């Protein structure tokens, strides 16, 4: 049966992400976007760079000087030092995966029959790492070598992770052609990633559950490992580096950057603690592992999701007790909706007779599946997405009406915040324009969740047929009750 899935008709399954053209644009365009965000909002001249505010007189040479473009050009975007540092980080994560106690849990049933076992210990791994990092910070403060290494090599670290993402996507793509029908390892191809179009399949991922056996480490499920470990931990570590950088810049730390760093750390730790819940997500059950997930896990999440603390490390914002209370309340509401709805879904799927979900009404489909039509999931078909999206606002709101310009020491600008080295940071004409960078996450996340909802709707329509149409008449709203 697995062999029959080597190639699917895109007209039957349907191209996603704009088909081959869209996949190619994303595959080669997202790394460029990461560099645009990195250089456009910088700690050299401003956020955005001053020349970007005057496009009519824009000079490429002037812009390069303003954004801190490497002296040796494009080759300066990478370095052996940063690359080896990043590889060491990945190796350290792999050692913790092997050495720390773990639990083994079976995944959902495969199309070809049987279930795969997953080894989970990411929560213990991340806590161990954070304890080591905290110890180093207590001993050496903001000058802890990890923090200064990240600050001094940020662009090169970004490049190293981009290259690893491309390498990993290429490796699993080539290796997927060795999947044979009826193989004892239960290797299986993803229905949506075997269209026969190379760039599209490279992006979507041909193999559903690629695994590799490494010396000493043992077998590693690449998809679940990358989904939960290096990128999410990297998100917390990058935030920590920017908190330390703000202290080195000003000699104090703002409540806004502390709030974001702690809130996002809580989000990551919660996902690590609930690690087995990943087994029922679309990423694991449906999508192959290709460039979409490798780049998303290793580059997009840690480097794009930490843009707010990166901004605040150069332009601190003080919220005060009232501001902190407001963003905390919004975060709590979003988290409650997200966690309570997911908990209810997982409990119902695991044991519908559980007293916690025994009251839930459901609709039974011809496939034998049960679709909840009351409780959280009777309110909207993806009510958890609403909670997830609401949490994105408190990540960006502490940056305020973002935008700043960095002036030379001794300028004496009114209302400037002065760094330890004398440089002055003012908002000036950059005010509001910086929101393109710090609020990018909110807009992107909304697009992501809406697109995921559409993808899930198409998948369920194929799976349940007319039963899905009946279900949608009962649970009418997609994400936002009463609106969408």
Automatic annotation (TrEMBL):
Its main location: membrane. The chain crosses the membrane at residues 21-40, 74-97, 118-142, 154-174, 250-269, 289-305, 317-338, 432-450. GO terms for cellular component: endoplasmic reticulum membrane. It is found in: Membrane. Keywords: Lipid biosynthesis, Lipid metabolism, Membrane, Oxidoreductase, Steroid biosynthesis, Steroid metabolism, Sterol biosynthesis, Sterol metabolism, Transmembrane, Transmembrane helix. GO terms for molecular function: Delta14-sterol reductase activity. One of its GO terms (biological process) is ergosterol biosynthetic process. It is a multi-pass membrane protein. Pfam families: ERG4_ERG24. Belongs to the ERG4/ERG24 family. This is Delta(14)-sterol reductase. It comes from Monosporascus ibericus.
């Amino acid at each position: 049966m697995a062999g029959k899935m080597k190639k699917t008709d895109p007209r039957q399954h349907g191209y996603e992400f704009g088909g081959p053209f869209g996949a190619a644009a994303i595959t080669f365009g997202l790394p460029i976007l990461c560099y645009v965000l990195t250089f456009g909002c910088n700690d050299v001249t401003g956020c955005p760079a001053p020349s970007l505010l005057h496009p009519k007189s824009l000079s490429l040479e002037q812009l390069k000087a303003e954004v801190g473009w490497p002296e040796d050009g494009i080759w300066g975007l990478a370095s052996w030092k940063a690359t080896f540092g990043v590889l060491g980080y990945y190796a350290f994560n792999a050692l913790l995966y092997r050495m720390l106690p773990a639990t083994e849990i079976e995944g959902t049933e495969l199309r070809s029959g049987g279930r795969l076992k997953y080894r989970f210990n990411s929560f213990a791994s991340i806590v161990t790492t954070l304890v080591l990092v905290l110890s180093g910070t207590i001993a050496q403060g903001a000058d802890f070598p990890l923090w200064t290494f990240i600050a001094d090599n940020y662009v090169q670290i970004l490049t190293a992770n981009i290259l690893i993402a491309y390498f990993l996507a290429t490796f699993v793509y080539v290796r997927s052609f060795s999947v044979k029908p009826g193989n004892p390892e239960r290797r299986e191809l993803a229905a949506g990633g075997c269209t026969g179009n190379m760039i599209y399949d490279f992006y979507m991922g041909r193999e559903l559950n690629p695994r590799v056996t490494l010396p000493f480490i043992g077998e590693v499920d690449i998809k679940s490992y990358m989904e939960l470990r290096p990128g999410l931990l990297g998100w917390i570590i990058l935030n920590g580096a920017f908190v330390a950088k703000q202290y080195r810049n000003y000699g104090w730390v703002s409540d806004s950057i502390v709030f974001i760093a702690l809130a996002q750390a809580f989000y990551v730790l919660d996902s690590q603690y609930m690690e087995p819940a990943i087994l029922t997500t679309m990423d694991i059950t449906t999508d192959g592992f290709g460039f979409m997930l490798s780049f998303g896990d290793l580059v997009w999440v840690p480097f794009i999701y930490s843009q707010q603390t990166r901004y605040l490390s150069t332009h601190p914002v003080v919220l005060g007790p009232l501001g902190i209370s407001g963003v905390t309340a919004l975060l709590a509401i979003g988290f409650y909706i997200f966690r309570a709805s997911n908990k209810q879904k997982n409990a119902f799927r695991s044991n519908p007779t559980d007293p916690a979900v025994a009251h839930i009404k459901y609709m039974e489909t011809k496939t034998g599946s049960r679709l909840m039509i009351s409780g959280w999931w009777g309110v909207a078909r993806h009510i958890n997405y609403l909670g997830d999206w609401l949490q994105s606002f408190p990540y960006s709101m502490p940056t305020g009406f973002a935008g700043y310009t960095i002036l030379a020491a001794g300028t004496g600008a009114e209302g400037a915040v002065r760094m330890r080295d004398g440089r002055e940071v003012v908002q000036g004409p950059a005010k509001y324009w910086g929101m393109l960078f710090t609020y990018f996450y909110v807009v992107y996340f909304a697009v992501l969740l809406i697109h995921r909802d559409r993808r899930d709707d198409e998948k369920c329509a194929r799976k349940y047929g007319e039963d899905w149409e009946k279900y949608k008449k009962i649970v009418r709203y997609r994400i936002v009750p009463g609106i969408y």
